[in-house]
C-alpha cells in the first residue's frame, strides 16, 4: 500500500479576516507537503497574516511538513503575523518536541487558546513600535 493512497485533506476557514484556520487531515509528508504549501501560499496571497494549523487529524508528519510550517512561520513573522499549531496528535507532538519546532511555533490545545495567542501577538507589534519610537 503506497502512501499516495492516504490523501491529504485541507479545509480552510476564516475565523477572522486576517486569520486562516487550516484543518489538515491525513499524512503530512513528502508526498503531500506540496499541496499543504499551496494552501498556505494561497492564504498569504489573500492577505492572511495569522495561521492556525489544526493538526488533530494528522497521524504522521515528516520533515517535509515541518519545513513548510517553519517556512510559513518565517514569512508570517515578516508581515507581522503568526503561526500556531492546534491539537497535534501525540505522534506529531512528539516530532515537534524532539525537533524543537514546538519551541519556535506555539502549540495550543484549542482554537480559543490559539485565537487568544493571536490577540496577544497583535498587541506586541504596537508595544514594540511604541518602544522603538521612544528610543529614537
From TrEMBL:
Q: Which InterPro entries match?
A: Anti-sigma_ant (IPR003658), STAS_dom (IPR002645), STAS_dom_sf (IPR036513)
- Which top-level group of life is the source organism from? Bacteria
Pfam annotation, one family: STAS
Q: Which residue stretches belong to region Disordered?
A: 117-136
Q: Where is the STAS domain?
A: 17-118
Q: Mind telling me which NCBIfam families this protein's record contains?
A: ant_ant_sig
- PANTHER family on file: ANTI-SIGMA FACTOR ANTAGONIST TM_1081-RELATED, ANTI-SIGMA FACTOR ANTAGONIST TM_1081-RELATED-RELATED
- Protein name, entry field: Anti-sigma factor antagonist
Taxonomy, top ranks, is: Bacteria, Bacillati, Actinomycetota, Actinomycetes, Kitasatosporales
Amino acid at each position: 500500500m503506497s502512501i499516495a493512497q492516504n490523501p491529504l485533506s485541507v479545509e480552510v476557514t476564516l475565523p477572522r479576516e486576517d486569520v486562516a484556520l487550516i484543518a489538515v487531515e491525513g499524512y503530512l509528508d513528502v508526498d503531500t507537503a506540496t499541496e499543504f504549501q499551496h494552501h498556505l501560499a494561497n492564504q498569504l496571497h489573500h492577505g492572511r497574516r495569522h495561521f492556525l494549523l489544526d493538526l488533530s487529524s494528522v497521524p504522521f508528519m515528516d520533515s517535509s511538513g515541518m519545513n513548510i510550517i517553519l517556512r510559513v512561520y518565517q514569512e508570517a513573522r515578516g508581515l507581522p503575523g503568526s503561526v500556531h499549531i492546534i491539537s497535534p496528535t501525540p505522534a506529531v507532538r512528539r516530532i515537534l518536541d524532539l525537533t524543537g519546532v514546538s519551541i519556535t511555533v506555539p502549540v495550543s490545545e484549542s482554537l480559543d487558546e490559539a485565537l487568544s495567542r493571536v490577540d496577544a501577538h497583535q498587541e506586541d507589534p504596537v508595544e514594540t513600535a511604541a518602544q522603538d519610537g521612544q528610543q529614537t
